[in-house]
Write a structure and sequence with these properties.
Layout lengths: L4 H14 L9 H8 L3 H13 L3 E4 L5 E4 L8 H9 L23 H16 L3 H6 L23 H10 L3
Antiparallel strand pairs: 1-2
Length: 168
């Protein structure tokens, strides 16, 4: 699974706008330069962010783009899902009869756990927290796990191999 360029660019735009003083409008050309996104592609990204009501656009001499909601209330997950739709690692993690094998498939629980982990990490990163890191020089810090996460159902042989590769 890989996030599309559109999602990556949308995240860049949202972080940039969240790092500015509230209410400051930014023209598309300035956003293009600040986010290193070509003008044509950026236009499509901005349109989707406006449709998703994360940003507002205003035409004219005093116009530009501005956050439409608080940067604290928008997560990385929100932006990615606005651009791509729901994050799904596998069809079997969907509710309902998405896969007839999910009741007995040994990989199903692994997919469910991985899905939950991805969603939780993306949900835990607000645009405000990411914007606060802009220019701070500090590396992003996310509260994940102190210890390696063991996925139940993984064969013991695989776990040993993983442990050895990390120097353990």
């Amino acid at each position: 699974m890989q996030i599309t360029r559109a999602s990556d660019y949308a995240v860049r735009v949202m972080i940039h706008l969240a790092s500015l003083p509230p209410g400051l409008k930014v023209r598309q050309a300035e956003l293009s330069q600040a986010t290193d996104v070509s003008g044509h592609f950026l236009s499509k990204v901005l349109q989707q962010l406006v449709r998703s009501r994360f940003i507002r656009s205003q035409r004219g001499s005093g116009g530009g783009y501005v956050l439409a909601i608080s940067a604290n209330s928008v997560s990385l997950l929100d932006v990615v899902e606005a651009m791509e739709g729901p994050v799904r690692l596998n069809q079997c993690v969907e509710e309902g009869p998405s896969c007839e094998r999910k009741l007995w498939c040994p990989a199903h629980q692994v997919w469910v756990q991985a899905q939950a982990a991805v969603v939780n990490v993306l949900r835990g990163a607000s645009m405000a927290s990411l914007a606060a890191q802009v220019g701070s020089g500090g590396a992003p810090h996310f509260e994940l796990h102190d210890q390696p996460v063991r996925i139940s159902g993984a064969p013991a042989k695989t776990r040993k191999r993983v442990r050895r590769s990390r120097g353990g």
